[in-house]
Fold this sequence. Notes:
The chain contains 3 helices and no strands. The protein has about 100 residues and is mainly α. The chain is elongated and about 55 Å long.
Amino acid sequence: xxxxxxxxxxxxxxxxxxxxxxxxxxxxxxxxxxxxxxxxxxxxxxxxxxxxxxxxxxxxxxxxxxxxxxxxxxxxxxxxxxxxxxxxxxxxxxxxxxx
Length: 99
């Protein structure tokens, strides 16, 4: 593996861990509040996407060639994306003017 790809994957791993940490912190902040439900979905989605990104980075860094790692990461990322869309939609419904 070239040095550039190694550096990019290490930075991606560090950023993904930071995203996951921030998502968990947001879950604690918004828990039980008025906007708790939308932010619960958004934070859980960000955590899932960060987890999937970590899986992909570790797969490349450790040179793993297992057949189930890529689909597993893809499914986790898909679930994270759906959760974020749900949370953003709930935020939109809350803040959009009533018709």
